[in-house]
Write a structure and sequence with these properties.
Elements: H1 3-17, H2 31-40, E1 43-49, H3 62-82, E2 88-93, E3 99-104, H4 106-114, E4 118-123
Antiparallel strand pairs: 1-3, 1-4, 2-3
């Protein structure tokens, strides 16, 4: 088998794991986000970065995990550098997945749209409140014992 034959499976796997490189950045920012940022001044977004990442449990070694985390951190840092001169606030960086949560201005949205490191984004919003598992819902009729008001005489 020639050199190309041996590399073909690796190239196919790499292409499957890499976000669509032909993706046009024209569609990265949904119109609704543009409109909301324009109307309200900023909008909270979750930004997906162009980093090939696997669930850490599927990686072969601690070094592979560390390498993937470094790649994610590097992409996050590069995107934040591209936002210099725009108005934005970092809500959250993620150590194990290639995403950023940001509060961005219309100018920052434009910078994200131009970035070769950004493959997608959507509004960061709470769809529905969630209770913490194994914890009862709070009863607003009674204050917990440790939060009862002190009566003064």
């Amino acid at each position: 088998m020639g050199q190309i034959g041996r590399l073909a499976p690796c190239v196919c796997v790499a292409l499957m794991l890499t976000p669509n490189l032909c993706h046009s950045n024209e569609t990265i920012v949904p119109d609704a986000l543009r409109q909301k940022a324009s109307a309200e001044g900023t909008v909270r977004v979750i930004v997906q970065l162009r980093v090939s990442a696997l669930p850490e449990g599927e990686l072969s070694s601690a070094e592979a995990v560390a390498s993937q985390r470094r790649a994610i951190a590097s992409a996050q840092s590069a995107v934040l550098t591209e936002l210099a001169g725009t108005s934005y606030r970092v809500i959250r960086t993620f150590e194990t997945i290639p995403f950023l949560a940001l509060d961005v201005s219309p100018g920052a949205l434009q910078a994200l749209e131009r970035s070769a490191l950004v493959v997608g984004m959507e509004e960061d919003r709470l769809d529905s409140p969630q209770r913490t598992p194994n914890r009862p819902a709070e009863n607003n009729d009674r204050a917990p014992a440790h939060k009862k008001p002190c009566l003064q005489r």
